[in-house]
Description:
Elements: H1 27-37, H2 52-75, H3 82-95, E1 99-100, E2 113-116, E3 119-121, E4 136-145, E5 148-157, H4 163-181, E6 187-188, H5 189-202, E7 206-207, E8 213-215, E9 222-226, E10 237-238, E11 243-246, E12 249-251, E13 257-259, E14 267-269, E15 275-277, E16 280-285, E17 288-293
Antiparallel strand pairs: 1-4, 2-4, 3-14, 4-5, 6-10, 7-12, 8-9, 11-16, 12-15, 13-14, 16-17
Helix pairs in contact: 2-3, 4-5
Amino acid sequence: MHLPNHKIGRNDPCWCGSGRKYKACHMAFDEKIKSFARQGIEVPDHKLLKSAKDIEGIKESAKINMACLDNVAAAIHAGMSTEEIDKIVYDTTIRMGGTPACLNYEGFPKSVCTSVNDEVCHGIPSDKAILKDGDIINVDCSTILDGYFSDSSRMFLIGDVSPEKKKLVEVTRECVEIGIKNVIPWTPMGNMGAAVHQHALENGYTIVREIGGHGCGIEFHEDPFVSYVSKPGEGMLMVPGMCFTIEPMVNMGGDDIYEDSGNGWTIYTEDGSPSAQWEVQVVVTEDGCEILAH
């Protein structure tokens, strides 16, 4: 944990920017974090904790983020190209004053990720990728507004989807709900990840190991890395003000994956089995968490 370079006096303004005296604001909070650090538990830096102003900014960004997914939900159908989904997201974001966070991010060429069937994540929209009856698709939308980032994704069932795929999608959603319930302040993040993993395993599925959730809000991708194959008692301490995504990638088959060598982005299941993902963005509160984007 990185504290300010100079010691804050009890009557000095708090480091969080609230304008209140340190002793009445975050002094007891910092002492509590230090007590966990002395036990060898990984704790967050101040820079990972969002202020009330930050959270309001993220919520405003999330309004655009969720509007994009709402508009996709209203229009998505068999015969639609994933390029058309990209246009909906781009047009909605720009119209509402935001910027698509994905667009040109480290060279990503589109405004949203569209991952179909055995595509785990980072699918690139294309006018050649046409949705077919029976497909499942994850639409992953990320938004910037006034410097604040929001990030969420939803699964969509196209036409007559098999019972097996429907179950995968539903169990994946349940995994996210279990993750939300297990965001408990002052406990290790590994507890939450382990609970998510257990539910997937109980239903005969696996969870991708190499890719997980992430801190988000001031930057697109912040610490910590959020694993869903973690062990209880491991990982960073979850404390009020931390903001991150819950987004397990659940595979019907094995958990091995590979990257498309042609585009350098799209991730597939090694065995060709379907994969599903739901994503929400949360902030840890004093008694659990608040969902900011879904």
